């Protein structure tokens, strides 16, 4: 029976951490049973590939593995120095530990959730006083990560690696290939966005992860564009969602109707028993927001907004050709 | 069942943890690591096969009788390990996001902020990439604080709530169960008015009062939220929406049974809704980007509403 991967990784980690001098690949092959098997039953190549992957996996887990190119008479040597791999002293009080334990539960995405619990396990092993009972409190923040593009983009942004992917712009019928240097990811209103340098367009762009179709592919080489000191993805996305508008629209709203609109109103004036007049920030997407309330809302102005809403209503009423 | 990476990560911490606790109880260790006893026993079966040299025979001599765990040849390989970049990022991004939640108790916010600073220190350069990930939680701070108080004091809540489905403000009495944040913040509670479990979005609460009456929600299994906060059931009526490329967002915002690609780059989306009448607003919002194709009655309601709205715009009116 093949030896489980976790056992193999564990053995490699222990060997590398326990040695005072660099170990050669041959020595590691002799020490780790799974490598001996792979080498005896498979081939030198099979062992080499396995060893390279395992080193990468351990590095993902935070282990620093030093590579000494000429440690053993021309042979490459490997070791994980204890001083470099030790968690520095960290003193968290019970309140701080409880707050962190809550935060560690918020990731719904498998990789980040695993990383967060892994971090807590390391801290706990180092003596941080987390409460033993894991009673869920009544507060449950959740960070989603349902988009397939999330994990590869997270890694690419971390390692500053360029990527390519197919992207369907809002309202576009088809997807187009994009070549991007990923700077930052932002989760806003439960959806993930990527900001980065679009190589073909030669400028910064924001992408919504759910509109990425197909695979995110990592590209060789470094970033060519300069990475800004501070990337404010949220401001860009919020602007697109109609926030931060400076223009003002005037609408009439039936009494008691359209509470969400009233909540956004800068000013509300009663007109008569049936209608109120509202001033509302006029940002992107307001036409759709207003049309949603049907006969409970009347747009007074500006004229382009009024025309937009009438156009939308005509489409729903079947008085205009619908594209769908 | 955890994957090999997570299991390796856990076993490395486990040996450090066990080193300080000879005779540790299985149940307690499992709880501490957030795993089942079965998973822990699985780890304990692997560890004796691990060591610094298979050939040299210096394997970890760890064993258990099912109740307690003993490590007979404790050595110093088991030092606390530094945080990996992803580990530091996962903790820091989450802690900063929660600390930014409007309405969070000041004491908790300060504890989080202090913890973030300490983790940053401990993680060193591995904390850097956390700055590239941001998460915003939105909540109405004062409403949040009121609900939080009602939850901790175990009291009933009175709400004036905008029902999106019915398009009107409704009054309800709610036994609060929990506050859930995913982008927006929601109150999950037992609605005494409708005698059912309900989810209320905080930004649609027009007015809230924490009543003197104690809350007494029925004992319910916590709802599984992995499919989304608003999860329709198979009994709910089916609605079919056909959208053009400009209406593809519907598939992202509505939990749906299926989304079939259409030749023009649009989608045919089949979804379920406990209150299909509420989807009238979806049809109105879509405009020329899509339409409801079934049930016909719902499509007709949207058309009637649009015609009634257009009446307002006939010459001379407003």
Automatic annotation (TrEMBL), chain A:
InterPro entries: CBASS_pafABC_assoc_protein, WCX_dom, WYL_dom. PANTHER family: PROTEIN PAFB, PTHR34580. This is WYL domain-containing protein. Residues 149-213 form the WYL domain. Residues 249-317 form the WCX domain. It holds the Pfam family WYL. PROSITE patterns: WYL. Signal peptide: none annotated.
TrEMBL record, chain B:
Residues 7-120 form the PafC HTH domain. InterPro entries: CBASS_pafABC_assoc_protein, PafC-like, PafC_HTH, WCX_dom, WYL_dom. Residues 237-310 form the WCX domain. Residues 143-210 form the WYL domain. PROSITE patterns: WYL (PS52050). Pfam families: HTH_PafC, WCX, WYL. This is WYL domain-containing protein.
């Amino acid at each position: 029976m093949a030896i489980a991967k976790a056992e193999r990784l564990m053995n490699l980690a222990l060997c590398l951490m326990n040695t005072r001098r660099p170990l050669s690949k041959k020595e590691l092959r002799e020490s780790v049973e799974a490598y001996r098997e792979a080498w005896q039953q498979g081939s030198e190549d099979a062992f080499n590939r396995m060893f390279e992957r395992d080193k990468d996996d351990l590095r993902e887990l935070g282990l620093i593995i030093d590579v000494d190119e000429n440690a053993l008479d021309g042979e490459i040597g490997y070791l994980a120095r204890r001083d470099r791999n030790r968690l520095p002293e960290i003193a968290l009080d019970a309140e701080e530990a409880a707050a962190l334990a809550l935060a560690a539960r918020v990731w719904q995405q498998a990789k980040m959730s695993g990383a967060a619990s892994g971090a807590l396990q390391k801290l706990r092993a180092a003596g941080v006083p987390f409460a033993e009972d894991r009673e869920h409190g009544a507060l449950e923040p959740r960070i989603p990560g349902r988009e397939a593009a999330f994990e590869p983009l997270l890694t690419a942004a971390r390692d500053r690696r360029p990527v390519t992917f197919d992207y369907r712009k809002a309202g576009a019928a088809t997807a187009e290939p994009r070549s991007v240097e990923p700077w930052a990811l932002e989760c806003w209103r439960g959806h993930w966005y990527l900001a980065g340098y679009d190589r073909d367009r030669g400028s910064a762009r924001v992408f919504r992860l759910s509109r990425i179709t197909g695979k995110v592919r990592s590209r060789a080489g470094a970033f060519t564009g300069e990475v800004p000191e501070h990337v404010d993805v949220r401001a860009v996305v919020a602007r697109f969602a109609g926030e931060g508008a400076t223009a003002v629209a005037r609408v009439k709203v039936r009494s008691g109707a359209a509470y969400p609109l009233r909540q956004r109103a800068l000013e509300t004036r009663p007109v008569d028993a049936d209608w109120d007049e509202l001033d509302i920030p006029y940002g992107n997407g307001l036409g759709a927001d207003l049309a949603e309330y049907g006969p409970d809302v009347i747009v007074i102005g500006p004229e382009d907004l009024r025309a937009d809403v009438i156009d939308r209503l005509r489409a729903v009423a079947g008085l205009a050709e619908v594209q769908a | 069942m955890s994957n090999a990476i997570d299991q390796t990560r856990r076993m490395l911490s486990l040996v450090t943890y066990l080193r300080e606790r000879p005779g540790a109880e299985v149940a307690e260790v499992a709880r501490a690591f957030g795993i089942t006893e079965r998973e822990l026993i699985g780890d304990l079966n692997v560890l004796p096969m691990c060591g610094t040299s298979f050939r040299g025979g210096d394997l970890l001599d760890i064993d258990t009788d099912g109740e307690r765990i003993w490590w007979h040849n404790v050595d110093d390989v088991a030092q606390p390990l530094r945080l990996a970049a992803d580990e530091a990022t996962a903790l820091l991004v989450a802690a900063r996001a929660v600390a930014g939640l409007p309405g969070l108790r000041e004491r908790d916010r300060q504890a989080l902020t202090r913890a973030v600073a300490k983790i940053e220190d401990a993680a060193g350069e591995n904390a850097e990439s956390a700055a590239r990930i941001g998460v915003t939680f939105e909540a109405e701070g004062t409403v949040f604080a009121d609900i939080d108080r009602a939850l901790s004091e175990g009291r009933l809540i009175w709400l004036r709530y905008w029902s999106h489905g019915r398009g009107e403000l409704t009054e309800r009495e709610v036994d609060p169960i929990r506050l859930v944040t995913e982008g927006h913040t929601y109150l999950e509670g037992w609605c005494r008015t409708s005698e059912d479990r309900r989810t209320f979005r905080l930004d649609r609460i027009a007015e809230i009062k924490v009543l003197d009456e104690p809350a007494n929600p029925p004992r319910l299994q916590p709802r599984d939220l992995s499919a989304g906060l608003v999860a329709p059931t198979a009994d709910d009526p089916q609605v079919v929406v056909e959208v053009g490329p400009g209406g593809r967002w519907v598939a992202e915002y509505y939990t749906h049974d299926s989304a079939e690609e259409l030749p023009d780059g649009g989608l045919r989306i089949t979804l379920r809704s406990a209150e299909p009448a509420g989807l009238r607003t979806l049809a109105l919002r879509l405009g020329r980007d899509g339409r409801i194709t079934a049930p016909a009655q719902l499509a007709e309601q949207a058309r009637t509403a649009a015609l009634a709205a257009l009446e307002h715009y006939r010459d001379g009116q407003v």
